[in-house]
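Database export, one record per block. Field names are fixed; values are copied verbatim from the stored entry.
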Amino acid sequence: GYRTIAIAPSHSAVQEVADAGADVNMTVAMYKEKLKDPEFLSQIQNNKHLIIVDEAAMVGDTSLKAVIDSVGKQSRVLFSGDPDQIKAVEAGDAYRVLHESKAIDVSFITEINRQKGSSDKDVIKFTQAFADKDYATTQSLLGKYCTEVQLNPQDFRNKKEHEQATKDAMVSAVSSRFFDMSREDRNKTLIVTPTNEMRHAVNQAIVSELKNRGEVSSETISVPHLTSVQCSAIKKKDRATYTEGMILRTKERVENRSVVTDYKVVQNFVEGDKTGKSILVENVKGERSILHLKD
């Protein structure tokens, strides 16, 4: 008999809870804004609602208090998240405090399910040990997958040269170890890097060696790379934000499932549009349509 409202600190997290089937989905910021509407607040306080706060560890003190204060006696709040994950941008660590003070009932998921289907038993053991905070076991399991690279800082003129040489040595070590494997093992190997810069360098080194060995074609194929752009709701409605050739990825709900569509911006204006809130886009088939930014 409860109406479910799922809220989360980011749009991507909201999309995940939306896919789970909540009745209403919105960001925490939007929920706080809607609480200013007396009619909305009255509905929350006087009817049975289940408020689900996903990624609760990323919600600050003020926002979490606003959520708790908004709930009436008939309603319930369910917090979901990991206190050890990324902290909130907003001040405070309310979710952790609620955990440690035992001010709320807490249930823990102690068994890792996401990697259960892996054929590599070490992956299962590693993820479980890490989740259990058994760092000694985690380190011992990681040992055979790691290669330590150390360069003497005194061999270089400055810190910048030493850091760059260390990065180059790390890339070389990863690439060498990768090619020491059989092709079958390589196909099952995941390389983890600390930064995107390192990932690109490792990819470049491996692809270059694969070309030298004739294992892949030397022909170069360019593929679009989508980069997430953070902009405010106001900027999203400003056609000046959009440039020719930009790729827009949209998500919409169709028959209780999330549908993703990519559009390319043809021009950031539409002839005859008096609102100044429309742009011309085309889909992957080259079909053109008008996207209304006010939507």
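Remark 1: The mean pLDDT is 84.
Remark 2: The radius of gyration is 25 Å.
End of record.
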